[in-house]
Amino acid sequence: KYIVLILVITIVSCKKDRNFTSEDIQLIPKPAEFKLEKGSFEFNKNTKFFINNDEQMQASEILASKFKTVTNWNLEAVKEAPSSNYIQFIVNNDLEKEAYTLNVNNNVIKIEASNFSGFLYGVETIRQLLPAEIESDKPVKNITWEIPNITITDAPRFKWRGLMLDVSRHFFEKEYVLKTIDRLAYLKMNTLHLHLVDDQGWRIEIKKYPKLTEVGAWRVDQENKPWNGRYTAKLGEKATYGGFYTQEDIKEIVAYAKRRGVNVVPEIEMPAHVTSAIASYPEFSCLEKPVTVPSGGLWPITDIYCAGKDTTFEFLQDVLTEVMDLFPSKYIHVGGDEATKTNWKTCKDCQKRMRTEGLHDVEELQSYFIKRMERFISSKGRILIGWDEILEGGLAPGATVMSWRGVKGGLEASKQGHDVVMSPGTHCYFDHYQGPMDTEPKAWGGYTPVSKVYKFDPVVKSMTKEQAKHVLGGQANLWAEYISTTSQSEYMIFPRLTALSEVLWSSKKNRSWQEFTPRLKSMFTRYDFQGINYAKSAYTIST
Ligand code: TNX
């Protein structure tokens, strides 16, 4: 009996004395500063969130719902100060947006922030400090939900920390989009760019133009055939693959994202990558010939919007009006990439437009096109953003550039005093291989292992201080030509997004690949609990 008693006492006292070491702190992205102290805070069913407003309540719910799942506790949010065992949310307007401080001290945790995102990130940090089992989707027994006494001061390096999902080439169901939003917030990322339009599918309901989704959202199913055999369906052939988000779906996505500090940026491609729209309304193209929604790669893309007809612009303004009503995003993406302007060269309306506007070539006509859209978008108080082709023929006055063909376009835009988001194919294209081609699933091409993503820096070395200020941040793009399931999408996104989150959040001097890799490995345990199909090969290959 005595032996048992001594054993119990030893175990209990060991637990109390558990001393965390810096190896227990495996946060990604790495916080700006942290100081570990002796002692710890232990969650139990009486732990309370001490809050003042709805925003703080929403942030606390992220953690409360995790505890509900694993312990079945209903951690309460209260507005009166409890005597101990609570997490207090404190408004501190000296802190920048998204910044937070976290102080864990035996019986009390304090999170200070100036806005919702800051509180949310404080909570997400607590989540990462807790045992990995907090991520389980099933009840977990025999765990002490303890986190070390620690003081963290943290703020992001960049304000645009994004991921793009190509929902056109592969239609991702709403549920997967919502899951992706959770995962972004978990890594303190704040932007989800939805590529809603491309040749192979139009994915958003537009009330004024129902054919966009009746026709444009569907193609002949070629999901299991290689992308590179160009396949263009015959007119009238049965189109069964596809889908789209209703306006109700979009509202749900946007509201869900807001509660996770994520801004959803819609992309409505123009003038090219729009065969799905032309298939629905041929009258907005130069040739006005009926076409079908292609199932595979389409190159070059010649069926583009006609830049000569005013009706094209009216159509696009109507579309964007509905889009802007749904998406509160300050930035509205209009694509602008890879337009083969063959038809513009022979189209009478386009020729006339060029004469009346005094344009010398089709590049200037594309620039006219984007500038005209930019006037419309900025008249609504929003900012146009487009792929770096929008620089050609002259950049629209208020435009922001998303640089994908390397960082060149971004550098040029910053020189012209425009804001940029860096998303170079070399480091940010998650449709590239992340390991040897013979062992990895078929991908677009290229080689972008997680270590290369980690080496990315959105600020170009040759930039002046002034130019660097125009770099809003960076973004990963998941083009989906070769994606046919959500689990494959997860495989391409993770763990590369984990590396990118640190690139975009943590200061440069705070980053080291050697020091990052053990943290990445420990993140895998959390991803296992979250049920994410990350590329397990990535870690061994890159270290
Ligand atoms: C180029 S990046 C495209 C996409 C393709 C991608 C494949 C960009 C603006 N356009 O349409 O999916 O390459 O990596």
UniProtKB/TrEMBL annotation:
Residues 158-507 form the Glycoside hydrolase family 20 catalytic domain. It catalyses: Hydrolysis of terminal non-reducing N-acetyl-D-hexosamine residues in N-acetyl-beta-D-hexosaminides. Residues 25-155 form the Beta-hexosaminidase bacterial type N-terminal domain. Its EC number is 3.2.1.52. Transmembrane segments: none annotated. The active site is at E338. One of its GO terms (biological process) is glycosaminoglycan metabolic process. It comes from the Bacteria. GO terms for molecular function: beta-N-acetylhexosaminidase activity. Keywords: Glycosidase, Hydrolase. One of its GO terms (cellular component) is membrane. Belongs to the glycosyl hydrolase 20 family. This is beta-N-acetylhexosaminidase. It comes from Polaribacter cellanae. The chain holds residues 6 to 548 of 773 of the full protein.
